[in-house]
């Protein structure tokens, strides 16, 4: 289970990392809105989000709004503001719960588990399926199928596909794609390597010159067709 922790207070963030890892959670950490957005858009999608409200370059509300555009992943707010306005705003944006600082880690973990129990059944009933050409992408389990056959993608190819899906219909420059792959995967991908990955992904998805799924926009970048 992968948890995204967005918290700018390093002491609180470190405590959360230690406690969550002790419970066998994989932790992705960010201290700013920009860092969190790069992780979210990279394809390293978390299974749970812990969002601080006040951040150096913005707030958790804007992050929650972006997350809810494409995902129903559970969101729990960490807030120093126990006022009704902040609470209502968080819930209206689609947050599942909130907890006020200072909080006890056992209570936080209990709330997370309660949210996961409530949401796990709904995910099983309605798996997230996205169509790309003749392929079905199951976002819940992270697999791609063409008919009854699984399309075997490498981790990097799947991350690249998620980037295109998150910006479907939009033209992405090579720089934008490289930035998201670098930050999310922690691996070095240069311009030439990106060309290779795009070519492999096209081939595996059954892309053709007459009916391209991933279009090359001359002088601009790439676009995944609607």
Report the CATH C-level class of the largest domain.
Alpha Beta
Largest sheet: 5 strands, parallel
Strand order in the largest sheet: 2-1-3-6-7
Please indicate the count of domains: 2
Global morphology = elongated
Q: Portion of residues in helices?
A: 40-55%
Order of helices and strands: EHEHEEEHEHEHEEEEHHHEE
User: Overall mean pLDDT score?
Assistant: 85
Instruction: Give the structural class.
Output: alpha/beta
From the 3D structure, determine the CATH topology of the largest domain. Answer: Rossmann fold
> Would you identify the CATH architecture of the largest domain?
3-Layer(aba) Sandwich
What radius of gyration results from the CA coordinates? 19 Å
Fraction in beta strands: 15-25%
Question: CATH superfamily membership of the largest domain, which one?
Answer: Response regulator
Query: Distance N terminus to C terminus?
Result: 31 Å
Q: Return residue spans where pLDDT drops below 50 for at least 5 consecutive residues.
A: 122-126
SS summary, helix count: 8
Instruction: List how many beta strands DSSP finds.
Output: 13
């Amino acid at each position: 289970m992968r948890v995204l922790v967005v918290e700018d207070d390093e002491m609180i963030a470190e405590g959360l990392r230690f406690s969550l890892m002790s419970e066998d959670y994989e932790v992705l950490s960010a201290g700013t809105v920009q860092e969190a957005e790069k992780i979210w858009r990279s394809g390293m999608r978390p299974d749970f989000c812990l969002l601080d409200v006040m951040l150096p370059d913005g707030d958790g509300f804007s992050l929650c709004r972006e997350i809810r555009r494409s995902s129903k992943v559970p969101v729990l707010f960490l807030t120093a503001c126990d006022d009704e306005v902040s609470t209502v705003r968080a819930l209206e944006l689609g947050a599942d719960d909130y907890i006020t600082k200072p909080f006890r880690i056992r209570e936080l973990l209990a709330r997370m588990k309660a949210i996961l129990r409530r949401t796990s059944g709904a995910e099983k009933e309605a798996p997230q399926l996205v169509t790309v050409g003749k392929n079905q992408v199951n976002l819940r389990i992270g697999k791609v199928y063409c008919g009854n056959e699984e399309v075997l993608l490498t981790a990097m190819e799947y991350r690249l596909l998620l980037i295109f899906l998150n910006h479907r219909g939009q033209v992405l420059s090579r720089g934008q794609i490289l930035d998201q792959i670098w930050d999310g995967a922690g691996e070095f991908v240069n311009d030439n390597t990106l060309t290779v990955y795009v070519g492999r992904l096209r081939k595996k998805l059954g892309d053709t010159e007459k009916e391209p799924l991933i279009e090359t926009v001359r002088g601009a970048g790439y676009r995944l067709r609607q």
